[in-house]
Write a structure and sequence with these properties.
Oxidized Rhodanese, domain 1; alpha/beta; 5 strands
């Protein structure tokens, strides 16, 4: 008990990070996919890239040929995405949290191959891959 009292900040930090990890599993999350794995799916299987960030974030730069549906609007736009149910779908956001929620929504809607882009658009651009403001 003395250890806990003396290291309260560390205990709280560990509890919060554990809760965040657990919540991503509960939400459905989708399978995490690395940047190299994502580029292979895009190039070899014509995977759909779905960006679920807000419009202002999307406008500042996104993966070329990605489709934009803000996370809050995803349920309303599922019928538009229906034609991609049998294709790989790579979902991205700024860091991977919102895309995890979107992956769960897509999986519950019957999408078979849903992937969460690990590290989000930040990891994509950090790897030196193209980002565009068009479309």
């Amino acid at each position: 008990m003395d250890f806990v009292q003396q290291n309260m900040m560390w205990v709280i930090a560990a509890a919060v990070s554990g809760a965040m990890l657990l919540s991503s599993f509960i939400r459905g999350g989708g399978k995490g996919i690395s940047i190299p794995e994502a580029t292979l799916l895009i190039n070899r299987e014509d995977a759909l890239v779905l960006d679920v960030r807000e419009t202002s974030e999307w406008s500042s730069g996104h993966i070329p040929n990605a489709r934009h549906v803000a996370l809050g609007q995803l349920a309303k736009h599922l019928s538009e995405l229906e034609k991609f149910k049998d294709k790989p779908v790579i979902v991205c956001c700024a860091s991977g949290n919102r895309s995890s929620t979107a992956c769960g929504t897509l999986q519950r809607a019957g999408f078979a191959r849903v992937f969460n882009l690990s590290g989000g658009i930040g990891a994509w651009s950090g790897a030196g891959l193209p980002v565009t403001t068009k479309g």
